[in-house]
Amino acid sequence: MLGGTYLKPEAIQALQIGADRVDLPPDWLIDRAPSGAEAIDRLANVNYDVAIVVPPVADFAMEDLLDRLLSLRRSVPIVICDRRAHMADAVRYMQLGAYDVAGPDDDPVARIQAAADACRSRPAEAAEPWREMLVGTSPAIRRTADVIRLVARRRSTVLISGETGTGKEVVARALHLASTRGQFPMVAVNVAGLPETLLEAELFGHVKGAFTGASQQRMGRCEQAHRSTLFLDEIGDLPLDVQTKLLRFLQEREFQRVGSSETIRVDVRMIVAANVNLLDLVRQGKFREDLYYRLNVIPIRVPPLRERPEDIPLLANHFIEKVCLQENIASRRLAPAALAKLCGFSWPGNVRQLENAMETAIALSGDRELLIPSDFTFGSPALPASPVQSIAVSENGLNFEQTVGRIERQIIEEALRKARGNKTVAAEMLGLKRTTLSAKLRSLAAVAG
């Protein structure tokens, strides 16, 4: 019972917010709140299937209004009905927490109906395989999923920003899988991992004899990604001369192989990622301003792990399952004290550091099923520069193998700590191959066990 009217079980109960109105079916029960303050009061006291916001709302900025509404009832989906909204506006609304946005070319009733239906039949995410890639239930990761859901089927270029290790490529792969191009493999290129002299040929291909060593014609990544998605990671490291050619490709979706005058057209969806502020590079003259705006059509910010601490237990257990499956070993579990240690750490290396920490802990735990706090060495104080200097041989002697093993373990743990758990980087620090470091970890774990 609401407002003296008996509700049929299938009737939609909606709260419409704002002075302007959207025409809705007559059998829906609509509660109207012209002001944001009134909407907050009603949402706090009544259960609705959906909230409809028609901007502008006089007494609240949209950011503040959405924040207040979501803090009251996160389970109530919010649909923004804005006839003036462009794609960039829709993305901003979604990032602020809106469930969906009805723009100038959309049917608002259909979108509101879909939101209300989703609210009634939760969880709706079970039918989205790509959502499983984004491990977590925090508001931050849900907002990222909401934006992916909104823009996945568009061809618009996406710029993914975030600190190192936050999982930008995972977001890119989720976006690709959610799109109609997901049936084809995504083509990924790490710009920073290629020599400047080879980048143009890597992206656009080359013909035989185009340069020294070009013994045969080669297809570039742009061509390989036809009808699929091209992901360029660390785009801020792209040389200026290649930036010019990438700009033309983005404008026309056409290119020429190195050494050829033939123009090739392709159907490619472009996703790029950066762990630096590209606008800072623009100001420094290291990145083209026109290319920046071509790339920044749909921005997605991947939150650092410190902004989503409630996801740490889920991520930790996800990585335990992943590592144990890869190593073909029995599953492990976290002791409560170990989990508390994980949740209390700031994770400057983000999700990647957590994954590497879990892999290291499993390796150092030997055959133990339970992972304990001492298995995790991140954030430990630096060791003395020369551990050997603190070791003295007493008259009764010492166990040479144990002592050397302890020193070796200290050195490896220190390298892993400085490398934020990255075995490849730690191995490089120690002048070892990654396989050699992994073998030493397994050997030390066996001795400890």
How would you concisely characterize the structure shown here?
It is built from 17 helices and 14 strands.
Can you put this structure into words, describing what you see?
It is a single chain. The chain has 449 residues and is an alpha/beta fold. It has 3 domains: 110 residues, Response regulator (Rossmann fold), CATH 3.40.50.2300; 174 residues, P-loop containing nucleotide triphosphate hydrolases (Rossmann fold, 3-Layer(aba) Sandwich), CATH 3.40.50; 143 residues, Helicase, Ruva Protein, domain 3. The protein is 42% helix and 12% strand. It contains 17 helices and 14 strands. It has a 5-stranded parallel sheet. Strands 7-8-11-6-12 form a 5-stranded parallel sheet. Strands 9-10 form a two-stranded antiparallel ribbon. Helix 5 crosses helix 6 and helix 15 packs across helix 16. The longest helix is centred in the C-terminal third of the chain and has 19 residues. The radius of gyration is 27 Å and the shape is flat.
